[in-house]
Amino acid sequence: MRLEDNVKEAKVSIRDLSLSFGGVVVVSNLSMDIPEGELWALIGPNGAGKTSLINCITGFYHPQKGNIFFEGRDITRLNSVKRSKIGIARTFQNIELYNSLSVLDNLMAARHNHMNYGALSAGIYFGRARRQEIEHREKVEDIIELLELEHVRKSIVGSLAYGLRKRVDLGRALASEPTLLLLDEPMAGMNVEEKEDMARFILDVRELWNTTIIIVEHDMGIVMDISDWICVLDFGLEIAKGKPEEIRHNENVIKAYLGDET
């Protein structure tokens, strides 16, 4: 199969991507094709370039070299707002929410890309504005039910426990109806029960909406259980790529995590 065919068929294609800050290379000549509907994990030691790669895909960083394709379209020079509008959403390592607003209001705010009524309609809350508000509210209520947030739907986000705020952060990303969802350490700081719940929610999202998911996660047990494919980075370089069972026994991966005894 030709290179161009891979780009057209994949949900996301990355070609020879390189990113550096000054003299520090954080992503080096990286290429991958992620099919639609699959769940890919990015793993590697701290500083391996995982979050930097996500920042490139979402438009927060602009690589010095290489290209990023989304559904066959070159989005390398597209800004982050436009990438959000075409179906790319993310969560953050550090939770990025409106802490003074309720759970419901946070999720409704993420629907802005789908709102197309004017200021006059919004001001008098009639006609199109009212109909769309009802539609957006129904979408948000579905997400609240999916993530089991009914009991805190009217609670102020800043007052919630950490695990619940991470769940709201996922809900905020889902509210934009992404077809590509990037999760940056969605289970960091959670206890075992919270991690199991989050893993279940992520799998539900993929199954219900056929969402393509890229996840950065340090819990190898979770990664091995839920991922279709795993890409391992170390100092910005890809050192392994494959199915979970292949990665589990890969010598280069073991050395990257545990060090070379020689």
Walkthrough of the structure:
Strand 9 and strand 10 form a beta hairpin. The chain has eleven helices and ten strands. The chain has a six-stranded mixed β-sheet, with helices on both faces. A four-stranded antiparallel β-sheet has the order 2-1-4-5. 40% of the residues lie in helices and 23% in strands. The model has no long low-confidence stretch (mean pLDDT 90). Helix 4 (103-109) runs parallel beside helix 7 (162-174). The chain is globular.
For the record, give the distance between the C-alpha atoms at the N and C termini, rounded to a whole number: 41 Å
Shape: globular
SS-based class: alpha/beta
What characterizes the major β-sheet? 6 strands, mixed
Number of helices: 11
Taking all Cα atoms into account, the compactness measure Rg is 19 Å
| Order of helix and strand elements from N to C terminus | HEEEHEEHEHHHHEHEHEEHH
